Amino acid sequence: MDLRVAVSTVIFALRPLEATTSGAATAPSALALPLVHRTREPFGDRWALPGGWVRGDEPLEAAARRTLAETTGLRPSHLEQLYTFGHPDRSPTGRVVSVVYTALVREPEVAAAREQEGPENVEWAPADDAAGLAFDHDEVVRYALWRLRTKVAYGPLAQALIGERFTLSQLRAVHEQVLGQGLDPANFRRQVEASGTVVATDERLVGGRHRPPRLYRAADPDVDAPPGASRPRSPYERAGPPS
After folding, report:
1. Which of 14, 63, 74, 215 has its CA 20 to 30 A from that of 173?
2. pLDDT grade, residue 157 (50/70/90)?
3. What pLDDT, in 10s, does the model give residues 197-243?
4. Contact assessment for residue 55 and residue 10, using Cβ atoms and an 8 Å cutoff
5. The whole model's pTM is what?
6. 35, 47 in Cβ contact below 8 A?
7. Which CATH architecture fits 152-218?
């Protein structure tokens, strides 16, 4: 039996809801991911996650980076291995095992990829609406969304989507967009500050009409946590993989 190995990537970004393939966009934002339009069989004329075959002498992450750059023009600084999908019937062409990677990118990275004249057969879609995809990519997206939402309390999520410094209002907006639901501002502030996942800085956001809000950063567990402390948890973490 022949076995082939492929890689796919699930890239998340907060993108304006009315963003177009030309780059024009208006607020508000929503969690979105890039999809590639397939032009040949199997699953011709269907949308799929970016990906491709692993070369014989190529490390898995290198293959993920190469195929992502080739298909979307995106080059995230960090990729995380998400899961391996290998059901015997996932591809009609034979036995294919796909190692899936995921990453978070900011809107400027998306814009930069477009300015470099990335492939025209790529479109960004709301993550929760991505369905009817090629192969088992519906299942892959559901799993990636679940993993993202279970990790929404971690500081690195804010760093990846809104920068290293952020207000609690900005952080709450990220949580709301990722979770797909509104959160009470007062409860959010109290619970996040008590969770130990963020640290207040001496900086403030300037440029507004009212008193400048304080800026926060993600807590570094090696620096900010007391010795022997466990990883901070938040009430916004979710449990249980998708069925």
Report:
1. 74
2. confident
3. 889 999 999 876 778 999 999 888 777 765 555 555 555 555 566 76
4. no
5. 0.82
6. yes
7. Orthogonal Bundle (1.10)
H helices within 47-102, ranges in order?
Answer: 60-72
Residue 116, pLDDT above cutoff 70: yes
Nearest Cα neighbor of 17 from 29, 4, 32, 7 is 29
H helix or E strand, kind and range, residue 80: strand 80-85
Specify the DSSP class assigned to residue 158. H
Burial of 88 (0-12, 13-18, 19+ CB in 10 A): exposed
Q: Determine the CATH number of domain 3-149.
A: 3.90.79.10
77 Cβ contact list (under 8 Å, min separation 6): none
What's the first-to-final CA gap in the chain, in angstroms? 30
CA 198/CA 200 separation, integer angstroms = 7
